Every structure is written in C-alpha cells, then in structure tokens.
Amino acid sequence: MPRAKVSTVVLDAHDAHELADFYVRLLGYEVRADEPHWVLVGPPGGDGVSLAFETEPAYVRPVWPSRNPGDQQMMLHLDIEVDDLEGETARAVAEGAVLADHQPQDDVRVLFDPAGHPFCLWVRTEG
C-alpha cells in the first residue's frame, strides 16, 4: 500500500510574504523557499508540518463563526498546542493576530491571523 503523509498546509492571502512573516514570528519557523508569490516555512530541523503561503489577488477573508448564507466559509484552521495559553495568546496578538469575539472553550483561544484565517491556541488538559 502506498505511503502518504501531509507535508505542507497552504494558506492563500493577499500578500504571501506578510502572512509568512507572521507565522515565522509566531511559531519560530524558518523560511525554506521564497518566490514572488509563494513562501514556504517550516520548523528548524525539518521535523513537522510545513506551511506555505500563496498570493491570491482575489482572496476573500473567511467569516467565523458563519452567520449568513453566502459568507465566505472557513475551509480549515490550524490547532497550535501551547504550554501557556494566556501568555501565548498575548504574544500572538502582539505579533498581529486578533482575538475572536466568540471563544467556545476555556482551554482554547480562537484568533485570526493577519489575513483573517482562524487558528486555535490550546493547552493539553488532564482527563
């Protein structure tokens, strides 16, 4: 049976470089490829999932949570495990993220990156 694995998640944005810079700062990733409309970043040492960013001139920010039929739906979100939820939330906001108004869980913080993609910071809880 063929072996397959997810190697990269690609996010569209109006400006691939701006969004890549945000995730480099947020995650401590490094740039692996940099082209005019495409940037690939990943963890130092190469282990883990890489993120790529592609410039899409017609990009439309997703709406989360969805409120109206016809809203641009969120297609995916990133879950990022952290040790200090409040500290990392504050750091993400300082780097350019926006805290979502709706927070569905006590051990998760939903934020939006500079292009409007939702992502979650979460802490592992016992149980």
From TrEMBL:
Supply the InterPro entries for this chain. Glyas_Bleomycin-R_OHBP_Dase, Glyoxalase_6
Q: Which domain of life is it from?
A: Bacteria
Q: Which SUPFAM superfamilies match?
A: Glyoxalase/Bleomycin resistance protein/Dihydroxybiphenyl dioxygenase
Q: Where is the Glyoxalase-like domain?
A: 9-121
Q: What is this protein called?
A: VOC family protein
